[in-house]
Amino acid sequence: MAAPVTPELEAAAERAQARRGLLVSLPAYAYLVVFFAIPLVIVFVVSVFGRRNPRGATVYGPPTLDAYRKIFEPGPDGSYLVLEIVWRSLWLSVVTTIVCLLLAYPLAYYIATRTPRVRNALLVLVMIPFWSNFLVRTYAWRVLLGRSGPVTAVTSALGLTDTPMIFTVNAVLIGLVYGFLPFMVLPLYAAIERMDWSLVEAARDLYASGWQAFRKITWPLSRPGVIAGSILVFIPAFGAYVTPEILGGSKTTLLGSYIVRQFLQARDAPFGSALSFVLMSVMLGATIVYFRTGARNL
Amino acid sequence: MTGRWISRLLGLHSWAVYVFFYAPIAVLVFLSFNDNRLVTVWTGASLRWYREMLENDQVLSAIRNSLIVAGVSTIVSVVLGTAAALGLERFRWRGRRIFDGLLYLPIIIPDVTMAVMMLLFFVQVFGLVELAFGPKIGLGLATISLSHVAFNISFVAVVVRARLAGLDPALEEAAADLYADRRQAFLHVTLPLIMPGVLGGALLALTLSLDDVVITSFVSGPGSTTLPVYVFGLVKRGVTPLINAVSTVMLVASMLLVFVSLIFQRGDGKVPQGTRQ
Amino acid sequence: MTGRRILALVGVLALVAAACAAPTTTEPTSATTAATPATTAATPATTGGAGDTEPAAADGVCAPGQTDGDLVLYNWTEYIDPELIDAFEAEYGVEVIEDFYPSNEEMFAKVSAGASGYDVVVPSDYMVSIMIDEGLLMPLQRDAIPNAANLDPKFVDVPYDPGNQYSMPYQWGTTGIAVNLDVVGEDFPETWGLIFDPALADQYAGQISMLDDPRESLGAALKYLGYSLNSTNEAELAEAAQLIADAKDRILLFDSDQFEDLLVAGETSIAHGWNGDFFAAFDAVSTDEFDAYEVYYYFVPEEGGVQWVDNMAILADAPHPCTAHTFINFILDAENGAALTNWNFYASPNAAATEYIDPEILEDPSIYPPPETLANLEFIADTGDFETKYSDYWEQAKS
User: Fold this and answer.
1) Which residues of C82-117 are buried (b: 16+ CB within 10 A; e: fewer)?
2) pLDDT mean for each 10 residues of chain C (399 residues)
3) Which of C31, C49, C280 sits opposite B136 (nearest CB)?
């Protein structure tokens, strides 16, 4: 420590840092290259070199962008179906993310401010419903929102509406929020729980209102959790599948479902693969925009 | 004054969210006692479906497969994912950004695309292995676990990074000075500090693995059907309360497990939570 | 910073692509072409795989009742009586490893990738013809399946597999409409117009469900318009899609899984679906005091509907072809075929099984339709390249 820091030492330290960083990350890195990047290349190959043969199997030939072109072509009745679906998926997943954040933040805050044992119990209570089966849970929502379900009973008793909510966009939204809420709670909790509370108290003394203390200290400190949570909710919601079928009566097609149907019902793997790449680019793009602008100004 | 008011409101809100979480669970558990073959048509209470579950070898083997896959993939992905998060947050190295991007892709990719690509990949690998070494291998629990790890690493890493991002590196540096070797510093300082993130990541990984249908069904082989895949098929033949009974048992089992672990935690529960003074 | 991350990502993908492009592009091509000769050369080439210790038939010919290892069965969920599996295991001293798929398409996606390891699959009619064309199925050795003689002549020479060279029928059924008589009354025309004709259907708006399946639902619309449900005329298809788009506001949901439950639960009053599913649901809600058949009624509309057949077939790369033949023969046994139908309420193609089938099932017109209804039914046939049109028009109509 007492030794003077020379450029050589600094460079050596940097090299050591780089070596250690690579070493620590290497197992995961290698794993993802072998079991993700390489398979991903196969899908890319399918989207560019593959064609659907008359039976719906994939055959390979010279490269073509037909599968990608189809995405931007108008459908049989002249409307741009894929783009409409992308747009619908986009706003629905944005709304899902916002609702999740509004529900999860106070909850995560509440959990993080309990005593350690209560904290752990509350956190696990968030997760336990999700260890039942996804389909069974979603079908339970069908009962809750159905014609003879309690939600309809309440809304009609309040004189709001007699029409059950099931098989509407709102039902899909409820299903998505329900399904992805824990993805928001967990990172938020992880971020809030480690907060230095003496800072918050100091802020309380310094600022007049609790709101200001929250705005200036708590919120900025919990921001990494907000970012991680938003990503974990937004992205899977965008690719949602099954929920729009079961709760939306398959009348609200989202991109995830649409892609599944290309792979299965239409047996058009090249088009499905091309769509997947477009979805991934949109997602990556949206995430970057979010990092660049939204997250910084939160 | 307002502080107390706000904290009351917070509590109220939180319990309302818990009601939201458990409303469908209550329905699910209630309907598992339905005597009728149709889950939504109540004709009387009975334990019929619990009995049927215990007699159904398919269900039991599916539960076993699910637990194996979830256990293995959670453990492996927590170790790899935590290491990845550390490597990205604590060190600067070349290729770091590429890794960073690669790490997000498994979260972004649609399930069915990942399912198809894993299937094609494994089939290619099997072909190459057979060509090179002779033995015929096939899809099974191993390919399911490998695929689950591939997406779980990313989810674990994202959660752990959220935790690491705000931690003061000075703490760890001080620890590095304090403890003789790096391993000890990691075990005694860094790990306890990031433990809540690791735990959260593990819970997330476990949940994702227990719930995955699409990817699993594509990379499963003879005899390796997991519970969600079985249930997915069952739904096509009409939803029976059998799957509600299975879900209820899984819920009760996990609650018991959690309850027991919370009791055992009583003694040393404070250690991992050392951040708050 | 993030822009660079993307660039880096693209860079690494390009690198990996360059490294792996060679094996990955050529492999699938050779795999698909290799599959075809394998099937024409029949069994020996594909079945003599290493690792099988059981004495496989040396010349690839299976004798009736011969086994060459455990059976790996890839079937629809809940489609076979577990007792039949037990009986087969006991009789032949082999084990049956069961796996399940929820749709033809999922099975096809997996099997066509290769290396599935399954022996027997149970594809529906149109999927059989697809799989034959793709070289995924093994020609059956009729000598090893003497019980094929039990089959009803109607199912012996089917359009999707002329001469039953690759498949043996398992069970069959129809697609039609079931209604809640309390809602629609006793006096209504038996027509697809209950869904598509505004004059008839508007009063039931919000109580109608349709199958979430392009071929089935567009097929129903095509039938209503008087066209073939296998039409490859784009103008006809566009007309059918418009019909569904117009009916969309009336339709509560598109669903292929729970349509029968929703009908008997009172959520819908008019449901498009498969007969066996309805029958099972009516049966489930019937009690001593309540006969569901008084309230619910299934029919195939007068314009005609779909007839489907699920079939047993052996994969070209089946590891245990002889056990597979033996299993098919076992299911085609008269009593076993009847046991299947008595267990899951789908009609049996097995004529010899009739005497063992529960008379109540035999007399039910929703399971065994009268000849005049049968004459109106069509199989769904694969339309080749036109299939994506069905899917595109369907998506457009629904959203």
Assistant:
1) eebbebbeeebebebbbbbbbbbbbbbbbbbbbbbb
2) 35 36 35 35 36 50 93 90 94 93 89 88 95 95 96 91 95 96 94 96 95 95 96 96 95 92 93 90 88 92 94 95 97 96 91 94 88 91 93 91
3) C49
Q: Which pair of tokens denotes residue C26?
A: 């050529």
* Pair B151, B106: CB distance under 8 Å: yes
Q: Which domain holds residue C322?
A: 59-172+310-367
Which one of C21, C253, C388 has the shortest CB-CB distance to A268?
C388
Chain A interface, best mutation among C267, C385, C389, by max A CB count within 10 A: C267
- C7 lies in a domain? no
Does residue A210 have a pLDDT over 80? no
A156-164 mean pLDDT: 87
CA distance B82 to chain A (A): 9
The 10 Å Cβ neighbour count of residue B132 is 8
Q: What is the DSSP letter of C346?
A: P
- H-type alpha helices, chain B: 2-31, 48-55, 57-90, 96-108, 111-133, 141-165, 169-178, 182-185, 191-211, 214-219, 227-236, 241-268
Assigned CATH for A74-297: 1.10.3720.10
How many domains does chain C fold into? 2
Contact A217, A199 (CB under 8 A): yes
Q: CATH assignment of B32-273?
A: 1.10.3720.10
**The token pair that represents C119 in the structure block:** 């022996």
Nearest CA-CA distance, residue A54 and chain C, Å? 4
Which of C213, C346, C337 lies closest to C276, judged by CA? C346
Quick: pLDDT tens for B201-220. 898 899 899 989 889 999 99
pLDDT at C14: 37
Prediction ipTM score:
0.88
State residue C311 phi and psi, 5-degree precision. -130, 150
Q: Do C239 and C384 fall into the same domain?
A: yes
CATH code of residue C202: 3.40.190.10
Residue-range domain boundaries for chain B:
32-273
